[in-house]
Amino acid sequence: MSSTKQERRCSMCQSLLSELNQTGQCHRHLLETGGRLLLKNTESKEGVFEKGLEPIISSSVLKQEKQQATVRFAETYLAKVAKVYDVPPTMLLKKDRTVTLVRPRQVLMYLLRCDLQMSLPQIGKFLERDHGTVLYTCKKIEGEIKTDVNLVSELEQIRGLISASDLGV
To answer: pLDDT tens for residues 141-157?
Structure first.
């Protein structure tokens, strides 16, 4: 995005904020976010002027904070899975299909899906895999849980390592 567009958006938002009698300093990021949303949907511009920018900015910031928290939690799970299977966490993120890495990666995908309720594309993006691979893996692990007591034990062990403080609770 060019700096003139950013400046125009920021100035539009600043003037909108002053029109709404919302004084004080706003972060440039919040102004840019509001400006992007304002310019993106020109038909509802009047509605934004009537309702104010706060709902738009708040929902955008909350969505971004939720995404950041989800990635932090996924990194926690990555570290715990790597610890249980005694592999470096970075190796689970690589494309390597070594037998010692496949099972931990599959377990990680399953836990991210079940425990954190991450979407298939989110998990795929985190692990640099296709969402179809994630779906296949989750179904595979679900099937194996029914017959493999060692897998159930491993899942319990990983979940036991994850404390409430790891998840910000």
So the answer is: 999 999 999 999 999 99
